[in-house]
Amino acid sequence: MKYLPLVIANLLRKKLRTTLTIGSFAVALFLFGLLVIVRGAFSQGVDIAGADRLVIINKTSLIQPLPLSYRDRLLRMAGIKQVTFQNWFGGVYQDEKNFFPQFAVSVENQRAMYPEFKIPEEQWKAFVEDREGAIAGESTAERFGWKVGDRIPLRGTIYPGPWEFNLRGIYKGSRPQDDTTQFWFHWDYLDERRTFGKGDVGWYVVRVTNPDLSVQVAKTIDAEFANSPFETKTDTEKAFAASFVKQMGNIEFLILTVGGVVFFTLLLVTGNTMAIAVRERIGELAVMKALGFSDRFVLLLVMVESLCVAFVGGGLGLLLAKLFSLRGDPTGGILPYFYLQTWAMAAGVATALLVGVAGGILPAVSAMRLRVVDAIRRV
Amino acid sequence: MVRVDGNAGATSLIRVRGLDKKYTRGGEEIHVLQGLNLDVDSGDFVAFMGPSGSGKTTLLNLLGGLDVPSAGTITVAGDEITHMSASKLTNWRARHVGFIFQMYNLIPVLTAFQNVELPLLLTKLSKSERRQHVEIALQVVGLADRMKHYPRQLSGGQEQRVAIARAIVSDPTFLLCDEPTGDLDRKAADEIMDLVGRLVGEFGKTVLMVTHDPAVAQRAQVTLRLEKGSLVDAPTAADAP
Questions:
Q1: What is the C-alpha to C-alpha distance for residues B230 and B33, in angstroms, rounded to an integer?
Q2: Which of A175, A186, A289, B189 could serve as a FRET partner for A107 with CA atoms 20 to 30 Å apart?
Q3: Mind telling me how many Å the CA of A269 is from chain B's nearest CA?
Q4: Cβ contacts from A onto B, under 8 A
Q5: Whole-model pTM above 0.80?
């Protein structure tokens, strides 16, 4: 602690330069934070997917339906504990910009299948009893200012015409990263009113009795429906979510490339700044050595200065990214998991410090190797 | 008593024997110091004079443990420093040597107080003890009222006085002054030399000083000239006809 004034004084020596370097770190780490958020938004479904849930879709494509009759056959199969099904609705609320995912769900097993979504008992009961009832995630309810009891009008696109629902409940996620943008309503209501595809469901979700046997059960399911008009493709929920991410392109590669370029540039900026800072005070460092400060102390002094800039700048950038994420999904529903996790912030700080070390090490070593006699002669 | 013949007893504070320093420059070997002997007792005030390139600063660097000799030994208060490792030499410097440079060499971003406190950061003194030491050092040099000033807010003479306070604050065994008045006008130079004289007279400090200025050298008890790599007694004003 007794050396702190020395470190602070050195950092404040050229205020503009220090501010700009801190600014570089802040911008880079803000960008890092956003990239991690976007990556997380795409892959969060993979990360939080239930380990014991399988998703069954039509083998041809997700948009092709499966018959309702499969439900009973699935329930009879060994290794399956629960079955539910859903249907994509794709309605528009007021304006096409107001996107949020809407599913027609089977009210019997929806709640049991997704225990991570919390709904008050009386609200669930009211939903079950009302054929036009609906439940919205708290993000969507908050976004549009909905309250329980509101009448929600949607314009059907896949299933044309005006559709109206009574909002009977609002669910919350049990984890911060849970998707709270969904809108559920009765599959029976959809099936009753639609003019085509009656008796079809979008996909099934089943819970297996033993997650270790998921792959085996998936194979059994697909074998059961092989050579039928509606062949199936069964995956774990995690694999299903991952296949969705893949459809968006190689997000991971894009993020790594952009992040790598940003941090390499930052490394050059930091290295250059620290090199200039050391070169400017060769005489002072030599005097400190003459007074009895060791080579190692001088090395550490330069390194600590570099790390302070990295920590303050990096911390600032990550804080801004966190504040930005707290405002919620800025895309209006495309990235429902818009959330900067604590591990990502820790990784960001670690990365910033790593860049601080890498940028400061060469100037610090040159300061350490400085020969007092030569340096003082130059002053 | 200062001697350059190498015949003094083993009681000298600083004892130099057969000191050689040579450099290789452009493939040519340059002998700066050759077989130099010196004995300085505690409380002596010695001035080194000589033409540019005669090796005055090299000698000071060797005595201060900033450089290593090509041959010979330097013993200070019983410690032979010529064979110390770099880290031991660094610690030794912190305990035994106070440096005063021509260009003051203060840290511009630190206040006078913080500059003087710098050598004490290497000690185990508490914050309040360090403060006490710094205040005393600044009082000795007459700058107790300038402790919060930065070097840029001080005159050249005041900066050098802060540098002197920094040199004496840890109560080193001896002070090495390299042209301490070289960057000052006559009045400021006289004030600085008065102060150095007080350190020797009142506080019993041992001072070894390099200077080009005969008037400054006159303030020392003994003036030695560097000639052909060795020290010789220079005639003092009192010796002049």
A1: 6
A2: A175
A3: 23
A4: 65
A5: no
